[in-house]
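To make this tangible, this section ends with a sequence with its structure tokens:
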Amino acid sequence: MTDLARTQPSALDQLPDRDPEETAEWGASLDAVTRAAGSHRASYLMRRTLERAESAGLALPPLLESDYLNTIPTAAEPAFPGDEAMERRITAWNRWNAAAMVTRGSRDGLGGHIATFASAAWLYETGFQHFFRGKEADGSGDQLYIQGHASPGIYARAFLDGRLTEHHLDRFRREAGGSDVPGLPSYPHPRRLPWLWEFPTVSMGLGPISAIYQARFNRYLAARGIKDTANSHVWAFLGDGEMDEPESTAALALAGREGLDNLTFVINCNLQRLDGPVRANFKIVQELEAQFRAAGWNVIKSLWGSAWDELFALDASGALARRLREVPDGQFQTYATRDAAYIREHFFGADPELARLARGLTDARLTECFHTSRAGHEPRKVYAAYRAAVEHKGAPTVVLAQTVKGWTLGPGFESRNANHQMKKLTGKEFRAMRDLLELPIPDSKLDDALVPYVHPGPDSPEVRYLQERRAALGGPAPARRVHPVALPEPSAKPFQALAKGSGNQEIATTMAFVRLVKDLMREKETGKRWVPIVPDEARTFGMESLFPTAGIYSPLGQTYDPVDRDQLLYYKEAANGQILNEGITEAGSMADFTAAATSYATHGEPMIPFYIFYSMFGWQRTADQMWALADQLGRGFLIGATAGRTTMTGEGLQHADGHSPLIASTNPAALTYDPAFAYEVGAIVREGLRRMYGPEAEDVFYYLTVYNEPKVQPAIPAGDGVEEGILKGLYRYQEATAPAADSPRIQLLASGTAVHWTLEAQKLLADDWGVAADVWSATSWSELRRDALSCDAAQLKGEDRVPYVTRALAGAPGPVLAVSDWMRAVPDQISQWVEQDWYSLGTDGFGLSDTREAARRHFGVDAPAIVVAALSRLARQGAVRATAPKEAAERYGI
């Protein structure tokens, strides 16, 4: 044993060694090389050996990091297929107009971001010229997740190819109206510019996870025979700082595990986030490489421009590669702004071999390398990386492209910590930019007041080239296209089953919904379009009956014998499975839902997703994704199951949802309902299918709260206006039978499971206190409010419109008492439009672990508490004796 031999136990000790002598010889050879040639040489030989083993197909764990060098050497780059000079001119026009647009907008304090696109221009332009497929071929094309802060560059390109005018550019960040030319949203917002943007991405971190699940959903559509998506490739453009967001990396393992080679991440590694370096004391590229490789991704590093080739050629010992790897990002950013003398002293002076290498290089070459020469700024290197990415099979690819943030904007911008907040260039800086980009703009058109937009002309060689390239790739990009495809209306039978009630059987509204969807999934025309999504608690929601019939989607099918195979409702995975059972990831489930909810536009294939989850873990945890869903014009059903603050017996604070409808009410696209009965669920779902998938499809989605409390489900009441009331948000469910003609009257409004407590209170009020109470089912507090706000706006314009809630309660005698399993702010949304005296009961505060009955008594929302509150409001009006509330409290032990 030598001094270099290992001294710690190895996991390999557990494996048989059939030839210990041969093993010792290999170890001795490594020791000898280390002593004779040094540790760097020994490391190099080991890595070469591992590389050879990998190419031979030997089963070895891969290294997670490689040297801080380009994955594709210059000599291995494929021939560039385009006219590089022409593409440089096109990119120069786009750079100029992007900077001009933001600078002109800054006159009025509108701001905008310049530096991000300046660094990433070639990452986009190379894709637009050679890779990104448009929608005119198969209706799908590629899916492009554009980095939000790069939007000015995309607008500039749309201006160059004739899709936008100067008037559009001058209305960047001006969307409030006042012009016949629509304004341009600050970032990719499909709801604001639906013909251009397809995916909202500026809430950083949502783009990466959405892109992964979009790529997976593309495979899902193909596996289920709905659409051939083999030619659709998903491209996600991200910032290195953005990768700190948890959603950015949450689903990397899923993409690697399922081999999503229809997906490419392009991470713009300019080493800067919004306020400074991404990893000042470390190296973000190396960190990301290890993270992606560990998750099973193919990693392509595209770091150094061609100016570095001479330096690497002179590096006979590997000292340059070692030095590049050890310098932290914060220091490298400094090199990008300092002179040659500083670089010679602080970078090359750290190693005698490097110092000798540097003596043969001019100052100009050194500053070129360290200031601007990055692979992300050279179309040939970007093309090589993209081509390698799309040709790689069996795994997703990430391209780590190094750039300089603010490149071409001048020394005042490039690599500066503050450049994210810098919104304009001076006239002097524009002149310098013009000269660098070699644009034919005379000085007479440049001044500090208003820099011009420039365009070579619609018939110029640049525009013709651009348009020819896009035509060859399938049309303009990015682009959003909707070809309306109305789905047939489902048969009435599934809804009639709920309308009849459950007889003597007790079922929860959660189960009522699941039964309804199970029946709808059997529909011949539309059944296959339902996409059930659940984050690993399908059995909690009673969905296990779908396992053997619909199957759980897995690209591998089922490669094992399930432990419950001999049971009727066994766990069945299938390559064409319909259920997306995502594991414990609400974020992943929401990304799934979004991909399915927007398939009508992305692929021209309307799908009907429903995502069922613990209501507490929906809006509270993933409301940002739900906002992006609205921005992307998604359609489908979000189901907040085990809803309410008091229905989850024993679960406690973190499971007890008392506020999700309030959060949901902030989303303009969310139609929020809190049904009490199965027939209400049926009516709401049927109307949702009509509104979202009928001939006049609307860009909305539904949020239904359903409960896990079994109750006998009544049949839908007879009479006119019940279904209208369900959909509008309020109807009288049970009118009081007055104990006497002059009985005190009160109106009890309740939603969800609280309707049952209120019915109990109605009986107590009549039997014990001689009070006649009408019980109303408030299926949607937020829809009542939305209607009322619309009426208010109309009244300000001179129209005579009265809110539905006001009309519904008009003339109803007595005060109004509202009750729900939510905090009081939920029903209080409509209080100002109720003409009667208003009061509400709710479950404000933190949840707690106990029985339903104890929890409801704690919050003061059970039937006796409702009685006391009702008597209190009546006593204030003199309708009952003043002592009645106290007597009731004592009687019921409150």
Remarks:
- The chain is about 40% helix and 10% strand.
